[in-house]
Design brief:
18% strand; alpha+beta; 41 helices; 1242 residues; nine-stranded antiparallel sheet; single chain; eleven-stranded mixed sheet
Length: 1242
């Protein structure tokens, strides 16, 4: 038994070292049964020879089986390859399972010479196992860092400090698998983490040369280098493809039969096609290599010495300097140890906003998890991703420069330091490159059915082969001619040009999209765009303008305990508090100027657009130190404590604070501070205001807020300012600090589409600088005083409403998927028409418990009437007391926490009902957006996702059609990228997708009919011992079919999107009925003409010669001339117009070409020249009969057109009624759920 052929093997999931390879059975994945197989039972031939693995990053199940060469069978294989002229080699190449069976024996994984890797899609690859001397300890390759795991008892009998002499490993999809001799299994090395990484102090020691050499053997070079095949290898692989082997077979056959002209043309076309394909492959690989491969010099600390090495030599554990002026891009994944930096991560996330990075601490280091590519948010602020660009770096202490003299010293004085944690393809960038090299195969019905259709044609060819062989034997034809003619029939029924014609519509569509500024990197997704039935949109930057404008600020009037009037400028805001002195400012203004993540780079502020708009509103000035160039942020002497400025900051990274001050305030002057105890020459207080930001707690999506610790100059108090979502303020602010009209005002702004940010503050009088650096976030974000709200307006993009209306008319469901507030999302949805303004909207809340509790309960309440609610399980309204009133229209607006709870703990049918009724998914994290797309696909939706690239990469990749509005590099993860930054591109992609899909069907049907028509013609002629001539074949196949097949796909899409989607199945009744019908019509007319001509008095039978084919005869001439018209008739009939494409008359090149060949055929029929008659070997037909034949051709066209337009569709519906019954049952799960929810309660 060959384990590669087995489909029901079970995973072994009880091993600690396999655990990172397997899907983690956590609550959020427990329903993902479509991609996870139950591997609890090992019924394989030998547990030591087989292993099942789940690659979490790739979302891929693979089977590993160890093999050794069987020398005797290997020699037999070589002999068979020689004896069969290479045919056995080709079969083994096309069917790897046969090759494996022929040359290998199953063996233990530890003794395997090569490993067969089979994935869940049925793809089989063979990886050779490399053996290399290692000499290190077992624990250095397979560290045991989780003693609570189940394998401790199993590992107890082994000493992990034993020497591992040889490493056995192989690379699959650029992931390295290393054989673990203790477990007897192959283990990935991309989740490796050194057990000594327990404290930052330990990390700074770096690695010595011996350790470095060991780790290079384990991980290889730090290089994302795509293995590019040579031109010769690519040429051989392309030439040995089954399609081109069939081409070679056809060319040889035609040459033997003296079809030299056509054989030469097909040879030239094939060679051109191969060369073009090779050029495209080489160019694509060159672009990928240029994008992925990166080498630079890095200054590292190794063996107690600082030195420069190539980035290729980096290994996990190496400490390197990121403040080196020669370093502009991070060459590996690393954690920041000291200093701070700002990086641009657009290559990974599509987010062009620079991100700040801070040194890692022991707490974050403890939760550092390298088992997945995704990094936890708590660690991400310390994590430096490979390939990201360095915007700015600040050393641990300003004014200190590192030099080679600092031997053995990696203190903060040495600049900004980082430690390597992942290298090469194990990095996040490497994972992105792998996803581009090995995309998940897309199960599109059209492509699957096309191969089935070719299979049907092959069966027809086989039948024709047998019939013609019998007929030639009956006639007594020469054996050589029998073989040539019978084999030639196969090349007629399965035309070599068939695969190329399937891509014609797609290529034209891609060209038209490019003119519209929409670029496609995955041509197969163009046709998929024609089947979209749900479109998910991000909100900010996609449906609405990218930037938010500050509408105004409202804070609390202490007298009335209500909000003040809206302050639309900072001038009115600054003068609003009468209780403040000349140099005091309202707390809300302090929060706006300090509670942000803005950074100053080359004199320009960079950061989140919302923070930029907020800070611009204040008109304040921000200054940063660290390079000795920023005024207002100086290192003061230790004695200068009365100034309120810390003298020796030793906080995170040891960075002195960022300072903000009003535009007209005097800049800080140290001498002025000490003069007259802080008074100037006039005896008045020094007129300057500066706020120093001494610590920042970054925004965390799960908390939905950020906070800062701020110290005002000449003030001993440290202030806390918090900015975040209004919903979370109730949990962290004192109840008595909220104004009476808080809920009322919040309801007004959120329901009218405004973005609201709430602010709070708190004062600490006994918090020193040192304590401020050590205090925990939860200690400061409690018992806060609510101080006000900032209102932002987010305007719809000009084209949003019209696009939403267009998609709604086309019955394409639309979903908003955003990280914004649910009420704001509802308001924007109503404004743009995504949900009906008159329909009810139900919003969930936790009536009991929270998203982390399995016993929580959810209440779905109407937005306008909280007393109106839905059943929490069925998501339907409670039975009405008026039974004759049908169900009303309503939508669900789902929040991220409820979405997560229902996936983790909720009922499966409740989840599906939520998916079909949910129009808005708010407060969704990037991972939840990704999961939403996958869940929609699970219930049968063809899902599109359109986002601006910021945090949407996962969803864009998971969607059937991902459309990015971002120009960032991460947009390569999406099949489509639009430079037009509005959602009108969605309309274009859908229109072109439908046109391309219909064109593919038209071209496929046309090529099928062309084959059958020619098959019928040749089969009839074979019956009489005749055939078409060489130039007749050349005229039909090259001059007639090729231009028509190409140009008929040039028709542009219809300007409006029809509510009904085109079919994607080639074997559907709507496709097969007209194809079979036209076959009967065209074949019937050929037989009719044959009967008529046989009854003519001037008819003469073909002359039969068993050793030579008679070409020039009446049967040949009449069928050739008739079939030439039929090819054009079928092209016109199959050129589908509205509702998916424009009329074929708008396709001017096609009309001109069809008219030209129609006229040319008519001339050849009615009045051919002697040259044409001799070249095409035509018989002299009666002149009147020529006109009679032309009349038959016209009747053929009218009958074909009438049947295609009016009859075949009726017949297909009648067949459907007979087969399926009067009522059609929905196959898609989402349709069944919708029908169940819309059904009236009994």
């Amino acid at each position: 038994m060959n384990p590669v052929l087995e489909e029901d093997e079970e995973y072994d999931n009880d091993d600690r070292y396999n655990r990172p390879l397997l899907r983690k059975v956590s609550a959020d994945k427990k329903r993902d049964k479509s991609t996870v197989i139950d591997f609890s039972n090992n019924d394989g031939p030998d547990d030591t020879s087989i292993q099942r693995v789940y690659l979490e990053e790739e979302d891929l199940n693979i089977l590993l089986v160890g093999y050794k060469f069987n020398r005797y069978r290997l020699y037999i294989y070589y002999i068979l390859c020689v004896l069969t002229g290479g045919i056995f080699y080709l079969i083994g190449r096309w069917i790897p399972k046969l090759w494996v069976w022929s040359v290998g024996n199953v063996c233990e994984l530890g003794k395997a010479e090569w490993v067969v890797v089979k994935n869940q899609w049925g793809d089989v690859s063979i990886e050779h196992v490399i053996r290399k001397y290692y000499g290190g300890t077992i624990s250095s390759v397979f560290p045991v860092d989780h003693p609570e795991d189940n394998n401790v008892s199993r590992l107890a009998s082994y000493r992990t400090d034993d020497i591992l002499h040889n490493l056995h490993f192989f690379d699959h999809r650029y992931i390295r698998f290393i054989y673990n001799p203790i477990l007897g299994k192959f283990v990935q090395n991309n989740f490796w983490k050194d057990p000594t990484w327990v404290s930052v102090k330990m990390l700074k020691k770096g690695v010595n040369r011996e350790t470095r050499n060991e780790r290079e053997i384990i991980f290889g070079q730090n290089l994302i280098d795509i293995q590019e095949k040579s031109t010769a290898q690519l040429l051989i692989e392309e030439a040995l493809h089954p399609f081109y082997i069939f081409q070679i077979f056809s060319i040889v056959l035609w040459c033997l039969d003296e079809y030299y002209y056509y054989a030469t043309c097909i040879f030239i076309i094939s060679v051109t096609s191969i060369i073009t394909t090779l050029i495209d492959i080489k160019q694509t690989m060159k672009k990928l290599r240029e994008m992925s491969k990166f080498i630079c010099n890095v200054r590292i600390f190794r063996g107690n010495l600082w030195r420069y090495v190539s980035s290729e030599e980096l290994v996990p554990g190496d400490v390197f300097e990121i403040s080196d002026k020669h370093l502009h891009i991070f060459p590996c994944d690393a954690v920041l140890l000291s200093g701070d930096c700002i990086v641009n991560e657009s290559m990974l996330t599509g987010e062009s906003i620079p991100v700040s990075k801070l040194p890692i601490d022991d707490t974050s280091l403890h939760i550092l998890d390298l088992t997945t590519t995704n990094v936890r948010p708590e660690v991400a602020k310390h994590f430096l991703f490979s390939g990201t660009k360095i915007v700015r770096v600040r050393r641990a202490k300003s004014g200190i420069t590192s030099s080679s003299a600092d031997v053995g010293n990696t203190s903060d004085d040495d600049g900004a330091l980082a430690m390597v944690v992942r290298t090469g393809f194990n990095t996040t960038k490497g994972s992105l490159i792998r996803s581009m090299l090995f995309p998940k195969p897309h199960k599109f019905k059209f492509y699957r059915d096309s191969f089935r259709f070719i299979g049907v044609l092959a069966i027809i060819a086989a039948i024709g082969f047998l019939i013609s062989t019998y007929n030639f034997i009956r006639l007594g034809v020469n054996a050589v001619i029998i073989i040539l003619r019978a084999l030639d029939l196969i090349t007629i029924v399965v035309p070599p040009a068939l695969p190329a014609t399937m891509t014609i519509g797609t290529n034209f569509a891609i060209g038209r999209l490019k003119k519209e500024g929409i670029f496609c990197i995955s041509p197969t997704r163009v046709n998929v765009g024609g089947k979209l039935n749900v479109m998910c949109f991000d909100k900010t930057g996609t449906l609405t303008e990218d930037g938010l404008d500050v509408l105004g600020v409202r804070f609390i009037n202490q007298t009335s305990s209500r909000f003040t009037e809206l302050h639309t400028t900072v001038d009115t805001l600054s003068k609003s508090d009468s209780n403040t002195n000349n140099y005091s400012i309202p707390p809300i203004l302090c929060a706006m100027t300090t509670c942000h993540s803005l950074k100053l780079v080359n004199g320009e502020l960079i950061g989140d657009p919302l923070d930029l708009k907020m800070f611009d509103f204040t008109k304040w000035i921000l200054e940063e130190s660290g390079q000795g160039v920023s005024s207002g942020a100086l290192d003061l002497p230790a004695s200068s404590t009365h100034s309120g400025r810390p003298s020796s900051p030793t906080g995170a990274g040891g960075i002195v604070p960022t300072v903000v001050r009003p535009p007209n305030s005097r800049q800080f002057d140290l001498a002025e501070v000490f003069d007259a105890d802080g008074k100037n020459g006039d005896g008045k207080p020094t007129p300057f205001i500066e706020l120093g930001i001494i610590r920042t707690f970054e925004f965390v999506s799960s908390l939905r807020r950020m906070s800062v610790l701020v110290k005002r100059l000449r003030n001993q108090t440290i202030e806390v300012y918090v900015k975040g979502a209004p919903e979370v303020m109730r949990d962290i602010c004192r109840a008595d600090s909220f104004p009476e009209d808080y809920d009322e005002l919040l309801h007004y702004y959120t329901h009218n589409g405004f973005r609201v940010i709430a602010c709070a503050s708190r004062s600490f009088t006994d918090l020193s600088w040192m304590k401020a650096q050590k205090i925990k976030r939860e200690q400061i974000e409690q018992d806060l005083e609510f101080i006000g709200i900032i209102i932002f307006e987010n305007k719809l993009k000009p084209g949003t409403a019209s696009v939403v209306e267009t998609l709604k008319r086309a019955k394409i469901r639309q979903i908003m998927c955003t990280g914004d507030n649910v009420l704001t999302a509802i308001s924007v949805s109503r404004e743009c028409g995504l949900i009906n303004k008159a329909s009810k909207v139900y919003v969930p809340r936790f009536a009991q418990g929270s998203s982390l509790s399995s016993r929580a309960s959810i209440l779905w309440e109407s937005l306008d009437n909280p007393k109106d609610s839905l059943d929490s399980t069925t998501l339907k309204d409670f039975p009405s007391e008026y039974p004759f009133i049908g169900p009303y229209e309503y939508d669900l607006a789902v929040t991220g926490d409820v979405f997560r709870w229902i996936i983790d703990y909720g009922d499966e049918m409740t989840l599906y009902r939520m998916l079909v009724k949910g129009q808005i998914f708010a407060r969704m994290s990037p991972d939840e957006k990704h999961e939403l797309v996958e869940k929609l696909q699970e219930i049968g939706y063809c899902v599109g996702f359109c986002g601006d690239g910021a945090n949407d990469c996962g969803a864009l990749k998971a969607a059937d059609v991902g459309l990015s509005l971002s120009d960032a590099e991460a947009s390569v993860a999406a099949p489509f990228t639009s430079r037009n930054m509005d959602i009108s591109c969605v309309i274009e992609v859908i229109k072109e997708g439908r046109a391309a899909l219909v064109t593919s069907f038209s071209c496929f049907k046309y090529m099928a009919l062309y084959s059958i028509i020619q098959f019928t013609t040749v089969s009839i002629l074979y019956y009489y011992g005749s055939n078409l001539g060489n130039l007749q074949f050349l005229y039909i196949d090259l001059f007639l079919i090729l231009p028509i097949a190409v140009l008929m796909g040039r028709t542009e899409p219809f300007p409006r999107i029809h509510p009904k989607r085109p079919t994607a199945s080639l074997v559907s009744k709507k496709v097969l009925t007209p194809v079979i019908g036209q076959i009967l019509i065209q074949s019937g007319i050929q037989f009719l003409v044959l009967i008529i001509i046989h009854n003519q008095p001037w008819y003469r039978k073909p002359t039969f010669n068993p050793n030579e084919t008679d070409i020039k005869n009446f049967d040949n001439s009449m069928l050739f001339l008739l079939s030439c018209f039929q090819y054009i008739i079928i092209a016109a009939v199959f050129s589908v117009g509205p509702p998916y494409r424009k009329s074929m008359f708008t396709n001017v090149p096609f009309i001109i070409t069809a008219a030209f060949f129609t006229l040319l055929n008519a001339v050849i029929l009615i009045s051919p020249s002697n040259v044409v008659v001799n070249l095409l070997e035509l018989e002299n037909i009666d002149y009147l009969f020529r006109w009679y034949l032309l009349a038959i051709v016209i009747a053929d066209f009218l009958i074909s057109f009438f049947m295609e337009k009016y009859v075949f569709d009726v017949i297909s519906r009648w067949i459907g009624t007979v087969i399926d019954g009067s009522t059609k049952s929905d196959k898609k799960m989402f349709k069944k759920i919708l029908a169940e929810m819309d059904a009236k309660e009994p």
